């Protein structure tokens, strides 16, 4: 029994054509036995001396990013200190609002991740791009609870600009990687 190389159908040993697809089997008696051609010995691949690896100098762009977070924290401390000097009791309220806002931001990000699991976490510098709008809304609400409305009117634009700035930094950092 021999099998057709085209369709795999079993045929009798003396068949000249496949009974299913018509493939013509080669005539074994007419072909002289073929001898394999002598193979040349394999040529080894040339070995090159290994180049020494040079360590890259640290990127100059990462240094400002590393210094940016402490600079923002220092600026917040200076602003809170100035507010405490001119308007006693306000700086502690703002500090409480910032801490609560941080925890609320983490909570909102957890909710966003549970509703949108395919959404990759775009979090850098502690504020996420996905919840920046929610953070700004909650931040305004917390400030209105702790502070008089006139001070909220002064702080909200600055805080919104800071949130937009940090969100922009996150997007730029994502585009860079």
TrEMBL record:
A Pfam family it matches: Zn_Ribbon_1
Gene3D superfamilies listed in its UniProt record: 4.10.1060.50
Keywords: Membrane, Transmembrane, Transmembrane helix
Domain Zinc-ribbon: residue ranges: 3-24
Pro residues: bias regions: 33-49
Entry annotated with the keyword Membrane: yes
Name recorded for this polypeptide: Zinc ribbon domain-containing protein
